[in-house]
Amino acid sequence: MIHPEDISSLTDFQRNTKKHLDDLKKSRRVRILTVNGRAAVAIMDPREYESMATKVRKLEDIEAIEQGIRELEAGKGRPAEEVFKQLRAKYGRAGRRRSA
Fold this sequence. Notes:
This protein has helices spanning 10-15, 17-27, 46-73, 80-91, and strands at 7-9, 31-35, 38-43. By secondary structure, it is an alpha+beta fold. The protein folds into two domains: 4-44; 48-85. The chain has a three-stranded mixed β-sheet with strand order 1-2-3. The longest helix is centred in the middle third of the chain and has 28 residues, at 46-73.
């Protein structure tokens, strides 16, 4: 959620960069910078960005897994041995079999 105190003009940010960066580091919340009263850019603490990016990647992975499960349930999958056989034929490599 964006708080009103987290919105500043780009001009004010340029004039008081150190203060804004200190505030950003302390609050660890996203800051919105405006140009002519309209949101122009969002800035955030690098640790918060990395945390957010990690969460997004995990959600994307979960979505991909769920999509795969839906496709398998709809009968769109192929047995692994069939896929491996096709890959061995295409790339000419002998497949390694695991012993039980």
